[in-house]
UniProtKB/TrEMBL annotation, chains A, B:
Organism expressing this protein natively: Myxococcus fulvus
Classification lineage: Bacteria, Pseudomonadati, Myxococcota, Myxococcia, Myxococcales
Residue ranges of domain GST C-terminal in the record: 90-212
Domain of life: Bacteria
Membrane-spanning residues: none
Record PANTHER family: GLUTATHIONE S-TRANSFERASE GSTA, GLUTATHIONE S-TRANSFERASE-RELATED
Gene3D superfamilies membership: 1.20.1050.10, Glutaredoxin
One Pfam short name: GST_N
Protein name, entry field: Glutathione S-transferase
GO molecular function: transferase activity
Domain GST N-terminal intervals: 8-87
Keyword Methyltransferase on entry: no
Keywords: Transferase
């Protein structure tokens, strides 16, 4: 059975690997699982054929035989159920890694994602500076807490896990903002993840889509 | 071993059960698991003792012997591993329910949560009306997609699951905004969930904290 995921035909991130298919590509590379990609235009995302797979008309989706999934976090948990190397086997360690998965997506990502949107959509609005300052303050609070907990560890909780895939892809969205540089251990954490061969294969694969679209 | 969770000593929601401990209380009631609650002041949330349990200084946390968890979504998955009734046993159905858990927290909640904050914190700002309109537009898009997918089903994907606990607690934050009323099946979905005895026990328990604090 071939696994098929969906991704943007023309990613708005300019080939920087910031779209959420990157998480699924990376996880699939970590477990050595080949996959096909179906590329979608922005118009196709909102069509019934895609909404039958993804109720909110987004990417990525994951198809494997009869199983259809959406939400990158859920796809990573499913892959971890089927393959070793993405979540600890021991119950308590596994539960803690899943806590970090939700923390990445529900506690750390929202302000960082909003900041990306605001710098694109609200740059000319009179309140732009104020909104940016408020978001940066919240982002610094989250980064400070994350940095304090990570300390000099390599990964969030013991061995590398799907939680690191999610957290690193969230933090990478800060590249170029100058916000992460106050936390050298977070900069090193992201670099350590980006050096993994599975990350590099996934990055090259999404980059190839961008290059082909130009 | 006694399970202990944390909650606000003085919830900012006025006893309406909108804080995230409600999700964990509800899930514990669904599986019939007794629990203790440690109430925390806003100051205590930021102290080292609590941050050792929750890196971002929030509620709820979950302690059971040596295991310490944070993030309501992760706590619900852990409870589902230990007890029946919160997630399907069959692999594909379980993976789909987990997709809905992430959808509730990462796709539906952010705009709804932002709207709550904006109406409290930004009401006097010059951009208030603009921000509210933009958030309401995004919320309506999400509700429209959710309503279309739910159709006339009772729950998100087959039997009641932890995904319904998360989605309903997210949607309840819209009470009083008038946004949900355009989608009668979502109004009925929330009412159906609120009628569950486990929900009512959890609601009464968090309400008792509010009443005692007054």
């Amino acid at each position: 059975m071939t696994i098929t995921i969906t991704a943007f035909e023309n990613s708005p991130d300019g080939g920087r690997g910031l779209a959420r298919d990157m998480r699924v590509r990376w996880a699939l590379e970590e477990v050595g699982q080949p996959y096909d990609v179906r590329l979608l235009s922005f118009a196709a995302l909102k069509e019934p054929a895609h909404k039958a797979l993804h109720p909110f008309g987004q990417i990525p989706t994951y198809e494997d035989g009869e199983l259809v999934l959406f939400e990158s976090g859920a796809i990573l948990i499913h892959l971890a159920e089927r393959h070793g190397g993405l979540l600890p086997k021991e119950g308590n360690a596994r539960a803690r890694a899943i806590a970090w998965m939700f923390a990445a997506l529900n506690t750390v990502e929202p302000a960082i994602f909003d900041r990306s949107l605001v710098t694109i959509l609200e740059r000319d609005q009179p309140w732009f500076e104020h909104r940016l300052r408020a978001l940066d303050e919240l982002i610094r609070k989250r980064l400070g807490d994350l940095s304090a907990r990570l300390g000099d560890a390599d990964w969030l909780d013991g061995a590398f896990s799907a939680a690191d895939i999610l957290m690193v892809t969230v933090l990478r969205r800060l590249h170029g903002t100058g916000l992460m540089e106050a936390y050298p251990n977070l900069v090193a954490y992201v670099a350590r993840a980006e050096a993994r061969p599975a990350y590099q294969r996934a990055f090259a694969a999404q980059r190839a889509v961008f290059d082909a679209a130009r």
